[in-house]
Amino acid sequence: MKDYEVYSSLRVPKNLKVIVRLDGRAFHKLASDLKLTKPYDENFYRVMAEVCVNLFKEFSAIFAYTFSDEISLLLDNLPFDGRVEKVNSILAGFTSSSFVLHYGADFKKPPAFDSRIIPVNETDILRYFKWRQDESWINCVNSYGISYLKNMYSNDEANDKIKGMKLNEIHELLFQNGINLNDVDTYKKRGIGVYRKNKKIEGFNKKENKNQTSYRSYVYTDWQLPIFNEEFFKNIGAIK
Question: I need a surface site. Which of 45, 187, 231, 232 has the fewest CB within 10 A?
Fold first, then answer.
């Protein structure tokens, strides 16, 4: 009967870095059930950052990135021998469980994430994360825009109005009404990143009888991400 299993032998090609993207399922309904603060709920983003840290540590990632209800995980060594069904099912399940664990709420319906695998070469890494960070900015403008319009119109009217507006028009509308998106928290515009940094440690080497400097890596959650560029990804060891 094992031969009946669909995709059981499908594996990701070896010697490639891989991005696993995890997206929340029907999180617009979840946001309503949890009565999340609009346009941005700080506790929700704290939880998403904690989930990223869990994923980063559990699967030895190079970089984790989140905005809204999605997470992108950059991996050098794919677990489970690259078996697609295992990677997708276990990472989606792990992410869902981590979210529930950190949120600690009584959910009306169990939260769930889906998972997809994106093999990339080195030149794709910056392009991919720049694409997602651009999407984070679009999400920021739209979130503030719809939140502002819903203070003035019904939900249906606000949704209809924003559908017909370009990004720069929403930005200008907000600016003219005292909301400068340049002043909002960086993570709302650019997302949150998790990666390893080195910490300088000063000590005394008794054997050699002298002061000694060493460096120890630790997992760092970055709420002040720069606009992604090649230098950033070189610094975190994602590209050469």
Answer: 231
